[in-house]
Design goal:
Structural class: alpha/beta
Order of helices and strands: HEHHEEEHEE
Number of strands: 6
Shape: elongated
Strand order of the largest sheet: 2-3-4-6-5
Radius of gyration: 32 Å
Helix content: 40-55%
């Protein structure tokens, strides 16, 4: 082996070693970056899974209405009312017309005294002890998140739906 070929051999070996080392370093960085992304995604997923809905019982209502008032607002312009009240906390006071505790969630209906319009309150099961004994005819204030309302065809009234509801207070008559 002469000097030139050994130098070429050494250069080729060094270059090969450098390329192999760079591939290893790149793999190492890719592995670390992948691990970091995986940990971040796992942390976010855990946060979202553990995040609960805020309890409405002690939350401040964005709007407070009597049954007749909220029905009139939705009957005047349901699209505008939906835009304004959707996903807002609303407290409604009125007389219970019907309860349905067979399903989950339990539902309490408050009806407009003069029309076929009603508010459908899907109750939050966390507060079952607060609403399980409510009977038709009881005047209550129920707080919930507005899920929308619609004016029914042929003058059949207006339906407004509140979800994750909690009883704020009840007045027995």
């Amino acid at each position: 082996m002469n000097g030139d070929s050994s130098l070429l051999y050494l250069f080729t070996f060094t270059l090969y070693l450098f390329i192999a080392l760079m591939k290893f370093i790149k793999k190492k960085y890719i592995l670390w970056a992948g691990l970091a992304i995986l940990l971040a995604a796992g942390g976010y997923a855990y946060y979202e899974f553990m995040r609960g809905n805020p309890h409405l019982k002690n939350a401040k209502a964005d709007y407070t209405f009597e049954v007749v008032e909220i029905m009139n607002v939705f009957e005047q312009d349901a699209a505008l009312a939906n835009k304004k009240f959707m996903d807002k906390i609303i407290a409604v006071t009125g007389k219970v017309s019907k309860t349905d505790s067979n399903g989950n969630p339990a539902i309490i209906f408050m009806q407009h005294p003069d029309k076929m319009s009603s508010i459908k309150c899907s109750m939050d099961s966390i507060y079952k002890n607060d609403y399980k004994n409510i009977q038709p005819g009881t005047t209550v204030t129920i707080k919930g998140i507005c899920a929308g309302g619609e004016v029914l065809d042929f003058g059949l009234g207006t339906d407004v739906t509140l979800k994750r509801c909690a009883v704020e207070n009840k007045i027995l008559h």
